[in-house]
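[DERIVE STRUCTURE TOKENS]
===
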Amino acid sequence: MATLFYIVQIVLAITLITVILLQVKSASLGSAFGGSDASIYTSRRGIDRVLFQFTIALSIVFLITSLIVLMVAPPAA
């Protein structure tokens, strides 16, 4: 049973990493050191909003599966 949760957790982790990397916007080298290219706030629309909400949902599912693995997994010897 624990093996199934381990596999699910690995798949969730890879998916979560992929979704987070898809959200990264193109940033110049100056913004990496504290500079800012855009001085206005833009709201998320379209696919950005869907990715943002999907990331939140995926991270909650990952947290829940982590807690389940903690309860189901046999104690280390």
Summary: Confidence is low (pLDDT under 50) at residues 26-30.
